[in-house]
Amino acid sequence: MISKNGKRIIGHFIHHAETTIPEIAAAMELSIGTATKEIIALQEDGYVQNNGKIATGSGRKPSSFSLNPNSYYYAGIDLNDKFINYAIMDLSGNLVSTGAPAEFKLENTPESLRRVCDFIRELRSRNAGEYEKIRYACVSIPGRVNSRTGCSHTYFDFTERPLSEIFSECLGRPVCVSNDTRSMAYAEYLKGCANGEKNVIFINVNWGIGAGLILDGKPYFGKSGYSGEFGHIHAFENQIICRCGKMGCLETEMSGLALVRKLTDRIRKGHSSILSGRVLKSEKPVSLEEILLALKQEDTLCIDVIEEIGGLLGIRVAGLINLFNPELVVIGGILSGAGDYLLQPLRMNIIKHSLALANQDTVIRTSTLGARTGIIGACLVARSYDFNLYC
């Protein structure tokens, strides 16, 4: 069993890939003797490896240590409105294998839950060799998810048992559950576009819209574990019912759902677009992927609607900057693929609507992990859960 100090040292390795015992002792405020003892124990258990002596200016050369990548693995399962996917990561945070996204309809039904359970069970036979090394897994789910209790209150809320318990039985390994946006924020913080920043806001602009908060280097959950419901702040007197059941939420005007609604309405009112025929001749809603493809073809109507949404988003992100004064704001999710069409009006309204003293040191970036953000985040959350470093 790993000691409390041992877990802290693993946490240090997660943020500092390779380090020496004196550096660990100084960072952890431990004596050299205690740090040495802990490192030896972690080596014996396979968590840490000795990389040999490193060159120094003078004196005795210290040994460098790092996490042992091949000792243990972590699995991440990512649920989306349209697909389910998995990845397996080693202890050092490198992806060992990834699956191909499987078509999946995420619904709050027993059948949808059974499909997830079947998918998790299949991992055991599909990746038999890697499965033996898996210590922990995480299932990332959209909506209101409480990682501490292992429950979801948006999907699969009809079961009396925690989802983490159900999924653990399916996999035969400990499993935690995490909100998808929070997992994505964690991925960008550890493996994405964060460059040492400790205060990061991740905005997930997908069919819905959510926020993941990293404050002082730690994920922020809130008292009950439901922080980040950015899309459900009341902001508009538009009488549009949100997916949460309330009216006038941010999500009703600046999400993927809002984008499709606005574009469709304007086409039906006579505005011209590459997608006009698609919208008018089919009852099937246009997809976000189709809209992004039209953007690449410089479709004027799609550009106009995306810019409108970017401007609205910028006003609200300006409020978050005034509130939290973060070092970094990351725009992710499928609509981040709109690039400057979304980001330029967003940045302009951040400048216009936030305090100069609050935004002067805030950097705005787009996700660097792209479509893999959710699955990488789920793996990283699983690893941190294993050592009590996340929740």
Tally of helical runs: 14
For the secondary structure, the number of strands is 16
Which ranges are low-confidence, i.e. pLDDT below 50, for 5 or more consecutive residues? none
CATH architecture assignment of the largest domain: 2-Layer Sandwich
The ordered string of helix (H) and strand (E) elements is: HEHHEEEEEEHHEEEHEHEEEHHHHEHHEH
In total, the number of domains comes to 3
**Global mean pLDDT:** 92
Please outline the major beta sheet.
6 strands, mixed
How far do the termini sit from each other? 19 Å
Helical fraction: 40-55%
Rg from alpha-carbon coordinates: 23 Å
Beta content: 15-25%
Shape: globular
Instruction: Report the CATH C-level class of the largest domain.
Output: Alpha Beta
CATH topology of the largest domain: Nucleotidyltransferase, domain 5
Give me the secondary-structure category.
Answer: alpha/beta
CATH superfamily of the largest domain, by name, is: ATPase, nucleotide binding domain
What does this 3D model show about the protein?
With 391 residues, the protein is of the alpha/beta class. The protein has three domains: 4-67, Winged helix-like DNA-binding domain superfamily/Winged helix DNA-binding domain (Arc Repressor Mutant, subunit A, Orthogonal Bundle), CATH 1.10.10; 73-186 and 373-386, ATPase, nucleotide binding domain (Nucleotidyltransferase, domain 5); 195-367, ATPase, nucleotide binding domain (Nucleotidyltransferase, domain 5, 2-Layer Sandwich), CATH 3.30.420.40. Helices cover 41% and strands 19% of the residues. It contains 14 helices and 16 strands. Strands 4, 5, 6, 7, 8 and 11 form a six-stranded mixed beta sheet that branches. A five-stranded mixed beta sheet has the order 14-13-12-15-16, covered by helices on one side. A hairpin with a 4-residue loop joins strand 9 (145-146) and strand 10. Helix 2 (21-28) packs across helix 3. The relative contact order is 0.12.
